[in-house]
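Possible regression after last week's pipeline update?

I re-ran a chain I had predicted before the update to compare outputs. Posting the input and the new output here so someone can diff against the archived version. Not blocking, just want to make sure nothing changed silently.
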Amino acid sequence: MREKKMSTIAVLGAGPGLGMSVARRFAKEGYAVGLVSRSTDRHPGYLEELSASGVPAVAVAADLRAPGAAANALAEITAALGPIDVVYHGPGAQNLSAPTVGILETQPADIRRAMAETLEPAVEVANLALPTMRSRGRGALVYVSGLSALVPLPFLGPYAPASGALRTYARTLAAAAAEDGVHVGSLVVGGLIERGDIHRMLTDPATPAPYATLDPDELAGAVWRLASGTEDEVVFDVLTQDPAEG
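New output (post-update):
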C-alpha cells in the first residue's frame, strides 16, 4: 500500500504570537510546517519546538515585500516538504516603532506604501500558490486583515483602506477559487494578540495588560476552520466591543 503523503502548511509570518500558534495547531493535526519570517534569530527555537511534536519543519528567512522573495520561500518549502496544501498569510508590521498618520493627514504616497506592504504581497502569494492547488482540486489560503477592514478606525490612516482592500481581495478570491475546490479564508483581527511582538512592546510582563487581548491559540483554531472550509470568515473584535458586553 502506498504511504499517504503528509500535508504541508506554509506559515508566512512566523512570529511568537499568532504565527507560531498556527504552526503548532497544524502540527498537532499532522501537518509538516514551513515557517517564513524576516529574521533567522528565532528559527532554531521554533524548529526545535516543532521537531518535538514529530512533524517535519523548515524555516526560511524572507521579506515577502522584496521582489522574488515569496517565490523563493515557497519553492524552498516545497523542495523540503513537498507540495503546499495550506498557506497562512499573516506577516507582521515591518517597523513597530514607525510613526503613523491619521486618515485626515494621509497622502496618496502613504496609500501606495500601505498597499505595497499589505495587498501586493498577498496577491503575489495567491498567484504563486493557487495554480497548483486548483490543478490538484484542493488547498487553502488564509489571509489575516485588521478590524479597520470592517470598522472605521481613523487613527490607522493609510493602513485602514489597505486592510479593507486585503479583506475584499480575500473574499473575492474565495468566490472565484471555490469552484476548483480551493478554500480562501478571511481572518479579521481587532485587538492585541498575546505573545506577539506588538503585545511585548506595549505591555509590561510583570503586570496584566490594561485592555482586552486575544489568545493566539484561539485565533489559530479559527485559521484551522477557515482552511478546512467550515467557515469563510471569522472576526475577532475586542477593540470596539462594549466592556459591558464582554
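Follow-up from reviewer: compared with the archived run. The chain is about 40% helix and 20% strand. Marking as no regression found.
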